[in-house]
């Protein structure tokens, strides 16, 4: 599993956020979760923790369809969660938008994936630091 933050710089344009990127309150970000599986998995939970200075733009929980997958996306106070009944072998990309709301230095949390009934099948991403001026 790999997690990227992208800073929206224009229509259909974005740059990758690193530890040295300077953000401003009001900036729009996109979270990109890249998941590679070497086997079919069932009853999968993906949890993406976010920094306290970020707010999701998709606030309503709902069922979504993408790349032949059906999943439930649930937005919580500190995380966005994805629940899948089935995740076939392959590579998948999940994305959702965020908005920068506060100035300061924040630690953006990790993302993790786990089979709910086979917890030995799990992975997590790294984290990044965000600086908002």
Question: What does the model show?
Answer:
The strands form 3 sheets. The chain has a 6-stranded antiparallel beta sheet with strand order 7-8-9-5-12-13, with no helix packed on it. A 5-stranded antiparallel beta sheet has the order 2-1-4-10-6, with no helix packed on it. It is elongated and about 45 Å long. The chain starts with a strand and ends with a strand. The protein has one domain (2-124): Immunoglobulin-like (Sandwich), CATH 2.60.40. It is 0% helix and 68% strand. The chain has 133 residues and is mainly beta.
Task: Summarize, please.
This protein has 133 residues and is mainly beta. Helix content is 0%, strand content 68%.
- CATH homologous superfamily (4th level) name: Alpha-macroglobulin, receptor-binding domain
Rounded to the nearest angstrom, the radius of gyration is: 15 Å
Low-confidence stretches: none
Q: Which series of helices and strands comes N to C?
A: EEEEEEEEEEEEEE
- Could you report the average pLDDT, rounded to the nearest whole number? 94
How far apart, in Å, are the first and last alpha carbons?
Answer: 30 Å
CATH topology: Immunoglobulin-like
Assembly annotation: single chain
Strand order of the largest sheet: 7-8-9-5-12-13
């Amino acid at each position: 599993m790999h997690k990227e933050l992208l800073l929206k710089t224009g229509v259909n344009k974005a740059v990758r956020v690193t530890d040295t990127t300077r953000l401003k309150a009001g900036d729009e970000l996109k979270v990109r979760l890249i998941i590679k599986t070497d086997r079919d998995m069932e009853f999968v939970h993906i949890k993406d923790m976010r920094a306290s200075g970020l707010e999701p733009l998709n606030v309503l929980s709902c069922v979504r369809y993408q790349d032949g997958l059906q999943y439930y996306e649930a937005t919580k106070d500190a995380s966005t969660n994805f629940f899948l009944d089935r995740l076939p072998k392959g590579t998948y990309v999940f994305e959702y938008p965020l908005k920068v709301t506060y100035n300061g230095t924040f630690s953006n949390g990790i993302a993790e994936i786990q089979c709910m009934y086979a917890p030995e099948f799990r992975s997590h991403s790294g984290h990044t630091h965000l600086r908002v001026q």
